[in-house]
Automatic annotation (TrEMBL), chains A, B, C, D:
InterPro entries to which the protein is assigned, alphabetical: HotDog_dom_sf (IPR029069), Thioestr_dom (IPR006683)
Annotated ranges, domain Thioesterase: 43-119
Protein name per UniProt: PaaI family thioesterase
Entry superkingdom: Bacteria
Keyword check for Hydrolase: yes
Organism: Undibacterium cyanobacteriorum
EC numbers: 3.1.2.-
A UniProt-annotated Pfam family: 4HBT
Keyword line: Hydrolase
Amino acid sequence: MEIHELQEFLSNEFPQSSVRIEALGELGATVRQRIDQSHLRPGGTVSGPVLMTVADVAMYVALLNRIGIVPLAVTTNLTINFLRKPSAQRDIIGVCELIKVGRSQAVGEVALYSEGNDEMVAHVICTYAIPRPDLGSISS
Amino acid sequence: MEIHELQEFLSNEFPQSSVRIEALGELGATVRQRIDQSHLRPGGTVSGPVLMTVADVAMYVALLNRIGIVPLAVTTNLTINFLRKPSAQRDIIGVCELIKVGRSQAVGEVALYSEGNDEMVAHVICTYAIPRPDLGSISS
Amino acid sequence: MEIHELQEFLSNEFPQSSVRIEALGELGATVRQRIDQSHLRPGGTVSGPVLMTVADVAMYVALLNRIGIVPLAVTTNLTINFLRKPSAQRDIIGVCELIKVGRSQAVGEVALYSEGNDEMVAHVICTYAIPRPDLGSISS
Amino acid sequence: MEIHELQEFLSNEFPQSSVRIEALGELGATVRQRIDQSHLRPGGTVSGPVLMTVADVAMYVALLNRIGIVPLAVTTNLTINFLRKPSAQRDIIGVCELIKVGRSQAVGEVALYSEGNDEMVAHVICTYAIPRPDLGSISS
């Protein structure tokens, strides 16, 4: 899949999000969140919800690139460990690596960085349910 | 602590957030996120990051109410299970129950609901690190 | 389902385990692990793996009681927070509450206690995949 | 640290465990659990608690190798995703990579494999609390 195709889909699905896709591959994806004042907390750090959002989108993008655009794929579990204070002056880079893509479930991990620093600011494990065409909904 | 005091602190700490505190107690807190178009995904559901944000704030509020306003308390781990599709027409209610509040760490759980429906839409476990006065920072 | 039926099934499925079922209900189950020397670590505390095992079994029992004996139900995610040092002299009691039982997935939480002390020693969230008759295996 | 020193400590701390240390490095550790009948469930697979135990030990070993033998280091959170059915005929190999080792907390991930197969059977994130000499206990 081309980056621009998936970016377009993403912008429709998450109109509030400004996450940009940087790279796509069989095994994962890299995304970037430009950081501005709206993402910060007093004291000058990126807020936790911003990090969780970037991770969720990175996983979504990596998965859709692998299985095709399946709008009903939904996050079922997300586990985040916050490790270091992100820089307020740097974009957040999310690097997703798919661990398993099965018929009905996918698991991936996302490493989050402040751009230019190779120490992870947060680590995320994400599980997605993949709907089956014949079943309508995966929610129950 | 009075709700309005904590609400004021919250509005300064998370200026982007519109979460409102509904109730405070020794064992927890209840918060509300009014849902509008900016919180939705196409297809009419509340986006995952909105749910994660409400949970994080509910835990923060419950903890600060218990230990006093300690601005440096930070989330260290958040684990969310998405259970059901939230309603696009209903506010999200977050009910936090503190499981343990220790000297250096606190753990709580948050149940998230679409208002008026008693089936949980998501369940969250949240861990906070509580800084110690003599140590300056808890981040390392 | 009767406790003795499920206990018998459990003893066959987990022959190494000595967990006993104490109570069963629509919404959950209570189990007990008798603690002896083989469950302890030096310094006199119950080892982490013992706690994880009790939680996993408590969830399994609660789920099977609800959906019938489906031997292929498998844990997909388990998240445990260790909260306090369990007593070496007390049995471990696991109280599982089912949060959601859907067609293909179930989520529950388990509170673990040292008997006679109402402060939780560990808190667990557990996700099970429920196989569908027509699909043979849920593992991929 | 030499493998045999840490192995000896481990055998004292976890006398029930037969996990063997295979490799130690600045960034992590590799361990092996020989699989015999006592680790299996009917149907021929390694039980979940065995996998959790191997992961916990792999993290413990990697951490102690890095910070020195600190017997009071304790797991605070363990999150496991079960991905594929392990082989009943193969040993379980656990590969721990430390993500962060701070003053008071360490986070690592552990990939678990059936020996000879490079598809992960389970993925674990583990958080340890590191006690501070002056504080006696980190548990509250």
